[in-house]
Amino acid sequence: xxxxxxxxxxxxxxxxxxxxxxxxxxxxxxxxxxxxxxxxxxxxxxxxxxxxxxxxxxxxxxxxxxxxxxxxxxxxxxxxxxxxxxxxxxxxxxxxxxxxxxxxxxxxxxxxxxxxxxxxxxxxxxxxxxxxxxxxxxxxxxxxxxxxxxxxxxxxxxxxxxxxxxxxxxxxxxxxxxxxxxxxxxxxxxxxxxxxxxxxxxx
Length: 203
Prior knowledge:
Layout: E1 5-12, H1 17-30, E2 34-41, E3 49-57, E4 70-75, H2 78-83, E5 88-97, H3 104-107, H4 117-122, E6 127-131, H5 133-139, H6 146-154, H7 162-171, H8 178-202
Parallel strand pairs: 1-4, 4-5, 5-6
Antiparallel strand pairs: 1-3, 2-3
């Protein structure tokens, strides 16, 4: 990765896109990086589309990622991952949840939901690692764990160790009881494992 790391997180309102970006920024700052982030939400509370930019490095002047410069695209929803492919740099990577959550822009006729978002992304030539974060969260007992699954998914694609990110995730739940801390630990590790297995299948 370059001296500045650019991560674009996209999805649907209510999935935890902004929270995930906050935690990623916290992890970067904990290691001494300068970090800037910005969010764009369209009807976020109603399931609208959400994108969140994060840039960190020795010195970051702007939070905005310019098209073609994102190192990692973290897609909480498959069609949103497809729609933002133009932001990735050559050699960048997409980590995407295969869940299909149709946003209001489709119902309004502003966007046709693709038949196969994953196939469309693969046409771009960039590396794409796909996994079902939503099902993983449901199997752990709470769909809201999908946010932590996605953070686990990106953990091994950052310029710092996964343990730093995990510590920031668990800190969020420290006051809510050991049970919730352990559930999020399992979700994080499940996300890491899912990406590892998906990457091994691509090799």
